[in-house]
Design a protein that fits this description.
Blueprint: E1 7-12, E2 20-25, E3 32-36, E4 42-45, E5 48-50, E6 57-61, E7 69-75, E8 81-87, E9 95-98, H1 103-106, H2 113-126, E10 147-150, E11 155-158, E12 161-162, E13 168-172, E14 178-180, E15 185-194, E16 198-206, E17 209-216, E18 218-219, E19 226-227, E20 232-235, E21 246-253, E22 256-258
Parallel strand pairs: 9-11
Antiparallel strand pairs: 1-2, 2-3, 3-6, 4-5, 4-7, 7-8, 10-13, 11-12, 13-21, 14-20, 15-16, 15-19, 16-17, 17-21, 18-20, 21-22
Length: 270
């Protein structure tokens, strides 16, 4: 798959001569890996069953704070199991401390907390979807072109209080700049006004892999739409809790937060 970085051949002779399981991607915190096993195999990561399609394709992902190792088990059609301990490379994160801010800029007011909980619960439910289609086979491209103004894994400590790390890549561009599907997918959320993220679209790429597009000024798709890579889904804006016009592109493998920037080539013109 063109957007991923390298190929690791891990297993030999799983079920018949010359069979092998391969992993294509980044074994690092925030990394996504696309694997291929013998058709009919089963796969588990740290005891968690992983969807395998009819061709033997599967996806695994690692959170920003993933442990140093993970256990991958592949059981071939003949019932023979191979286990491999994967070394997950650590990364260093940009940590910024800001003090002296007004309290309302650090903690949301009580009257909006219920709204935030409701919206977060809806999004969490969508991230549990395990769609059988392997729409990610299209590969990944940048959803918008602009200056990278924020990176995955960075974190702010405001008035001494650690905030959630930033789990996306920010692309700064003028309001109205088109936002396009980075890969094939199905729209599972299209909301114009979420508290934190404003105009928001979530695109399901299959196997628990999804993209979210935040702070948009306009949304041009609806839930259920099937998009091909490059189809327009909205326009860059500064809605929600944003300080300027930009697209915050995030990716998940179920609840695991993935670094989108690892899946695409360098930003054009960077």
């Amino acid at each position: 798959m063109r957007a991923l970085a390298f190929l690791l051949v891990l297993f030999a002779g799983l079920s018949h001569a010359n069979a092998e399981t391969s992993l294509d991607g980044n074994l690092t915190q925030g990394g996504l890996v696309i694997g291929h096993a013998d058709p009919g195999s089963t796969v588990a990561l740290d005891g968690r069953d992983v969807r395998v399609d009819a061709d033997g394709l599967f996806v695994i992902g690692f959170h920003r704070d993933a442990a140093a190792t993970a256990e991958l088990t592949v059981t071939g059609p003949d019932g023979k199991a191979e286990r491999r301990t994967l070394a997950i490379a650590p990364r260093e994160w940009n940590i910024q401390r800001i003090d002296g801010l007004p309290k309302t800029m650090v903690t949301p007011p009580p009257e909006v907390l219920e709204r935030i909980r409701r919206e977060n619960a809806e999004i969490a439910a969508l991230r549990k979807i395990d769609r059988p289609e392997s729409l990610f086979r299209s590969g990944f491209a940048w959803p918008a072109i602009g200056r990278i103004s924020g990176v995955y894994g960075s974190q702010r400590i405001l008035n001494g209080e650690p905030k959630w790390p930033h789990y996306g890549v920010d692309i700064a561009a003028p309001v109205g700049t088109p936002v396009k599907a980075p890969a094939d997918g199905i729209v599972v959320l299209a909301e114009k006004d979420l508290y934190y993220t404003g105009g928001t679209v979530i695109l399901d790429h299959g196997h628990g892999l999804s993209s979210a597009f935040l702070h948009m000024s306009a949304i041009t798709v609806k839930v259920g739409d099937r998009l091909r890579q490059g189809d327009m889904l909205g326009k860059i804006g500064a809605t929600g809790r944003a300080t300027g016009p930009h697209l915050d592109w995030r990716m998940n493998w179920f609840e695991e937060r993935i670094d989108p920037q690892l899946l695409v080539p360098p930003m054009p013109g960077s």
